[in-house]
Amino acid sequence: MSFWENFWNIFLWFFYVYAFIAFLYALFVVIADIFRDHELNGWLKAVWIVFLAFLPLLGVLVYLIARGKSMTGRMSERARRNQESTDAYIREVAAPSPAEEISKAKALLDAGTISQDEFAKIKSSVLV
């Protein structure tokens, strides 16, 4: 066997492995989308799962053609909701409460570090 025949066999093997992994990824994404879709009732979910179980390649292709656009919308909506909840959590945890800010400013005022006008500015900016 020559070097080039061996090289192309290895290349073809890598291509088959890549195609198989891509198919598995698409299959799992479709299955996850089926179960996350609140518009589909239980019977339609069962029909899609049976279709995917018996004809997986054809089932994935048909699902992507029939419901691919709404699948993208659901994924982007879920990503947007996750981002909003993450941002809200970060704002809640990172930002000190107005009472804490005013008490810190009052401590600085009592220590003589800031003036009464600076304390009033801090207090008004926190309460806004």
What does this structure look like?
- The structure is a single chain.
- The protein is mostly helical.
- It contains five helices and no strands.
- The radius of gyration is 29 Å and the shape is elongated.
- It starts with a helix and ends with a helix.
Uncertain segments are: none
Total beta strands: 0
Q: Strand content of the residues, in percent? A: under 5%
| Major pleated sheet | none
The total count of helices amounts to: 5
Order of helices and strands: HHHHH
Q: Based on the structure, what is the oligomeric state of the protein chains?
A: single chain
Distance between the termini: 79 Å
User: What helical percentage do the residues reach?
Assistant: over 70%
Shape descriptor reads: elongated
Backbone CA Rg: 29 Å
**Structural class given helices, strands, pairing?**
mainly alpha
Mean pLDDT: 90
Topology of this protein?
Elements: H1 3-36, H2 42-54, H3 56-94, H4 98-111, H5 116-127
Helix pairs in contact: 1-2, 1-3, 2-3, 4-5
Please supply descriptive tags for the structure shown above.
mainly alpha
Characterize this entry briefly.
With 128 residues, this protein is mainly alpha-helical. The protein contains five helices and no strands. The termini are far apart.
